[in-house]
Amino acid sequence: MTILITGATGSVGRHVVDLLVAAGAPVRALTRTPAAAQLPPAVEVFEGDLLRPDSLVPALAGVERLYLFPEPATAREVADRAKRAGVERIVVLSSDAVTEGSDPGHHRPVEEAAESTGLGWTHVRPGEFAVNKLSLWQRSIREEGVVRAAYPTAVGAPVHEADVAAVAAAALLEDGHAGAVHRVSGPSALAVRDQVAALATGLGRAVRLVEVGHDEARKDMLRDGFPEYVADYILAFQAQWVDRPAPVHDTVRRLIGRPAHDLTRWAADHRRDFL
Questions:
Q1: Counted domains in the chain
Q2: Do 16 and 119 fall into the same domain?
Q3: pLDDT tens for the 275 residues of the chain, in order
Q4: In which domain, by residue range, is 103 found?
Q5: CATH number of the domain that residue 214 is part of
Q6: Alpha-carbon span 39 to 43, nearest angstrom
Q7: CA nearest neighbour of 256 among 150, 177, 144
Q8: Do 69 and 139 lie in a common domain?
Q9: Kind and range of the H or E element at 13?
């Protein structure tokens, strides 16, 4: 049962690879830069790019199950090549924004491409990624021990990327997931101010929350290299969840048999990134 992992060097993909190797499954990994992949020795590494669907053909030969990273521009072509190669199951890394109706154009087309093949498919829809805290808050925490936030009462349930990977690995390894949509979140809904406190605990250092205005928060993001449209999207998303209960799902406990990792655990796992 050979399994091909696309996006194998990404934050979720690496965990998927490790879990499959630990389970004893034959694993192949697709990456644009095999020499820099640094994947376990047991993994067959293939050069390829989802934006060049024909480049996947060698990696797909003999593969029965596929973990599909979301690339909507070529999803149909990639799914078609997977079907022609004899793949029987596709597990899509999607987003809970599809469920919420705020992402019709990026992740949903990839889901539709998998569904159109007639093969067994499973969609893994994580909500807010905890790892996004790195791009948002890493510099200010590292340099100043501060998080500047325009919406401190915006609520989310940040999910550890390892939990997303655990759900995806289960869907790849186990039967009974065909046609399933697995929504994945952290174990509890937290306002931004509580997220900062959880990070501080996990990092083992003081982190202070400073409330700023919308425009100042936007300037901070632009200074940190965010494109304008990304900064605007993030701030609009936060404003939408002010004082609202964010959805929390028990998917990790139900499928994996343990609670989802909380934000304190995530921060402890990423402590070096904040040094």
A1: 2
A2: yes
A3: 899 999 999 999 999 999 999 999 999 999 999 999 999 999 999 999 999 999 999 999 999 999 999 999 999 999 999 999 999 999 999 999 999 888 889 999 999 999 999 999 999 999 999 999 999 999 999 999 999 999 999 999 999 999 999 999 999 999 999 999 999 999 999 999 999 999 999 999 999 999 999 999 999 999 999 999 999 989 998 999 999 989 999 999 999 999 999 999 999 999 999 98
A4: 3-126
A5: 3.90.25.10
A6: 7
A7: 177
A8: no
A9: helix 13-22
Q: Which two tokens stand for residue 269?
A: 């796992």
Query: How far apart are alpha carbons 274 and 133 in whole angstroms?
Result: 10
CB 46 within 8 A of CB 58: yes
- Residue 42 falls inside a structural domain: yes
Same domain, 205 and 146: yes
Q: Is residue 82 part of a domain?
A: yes
**167 lies in a domain?**
no
Sorted by sequence, the CB contacts under 8 Å of residue 222 that are 6+ apart come out as: 228, 231
Pair (81, 144) in one structural domain? no
- pTM of the shown model: 0.96
> What secondary structure does DSSP assign to 139-152, as a single string?
HHHHHHSEEEES-T
Q: Identify whether residues 111 and 142 lie together within a single domain.
A: no
**Shared domain check, 239 and 139:** yes
Residues 267 and 152 placed together within one structural domain of the fold: yes
Contacting residues for 38 by C-beta, under 8 A, at least 6 apart: 9
DSSP for residue 53? G
Residue with tokens 């048999």: 257
- 107 domain-assigned: yes
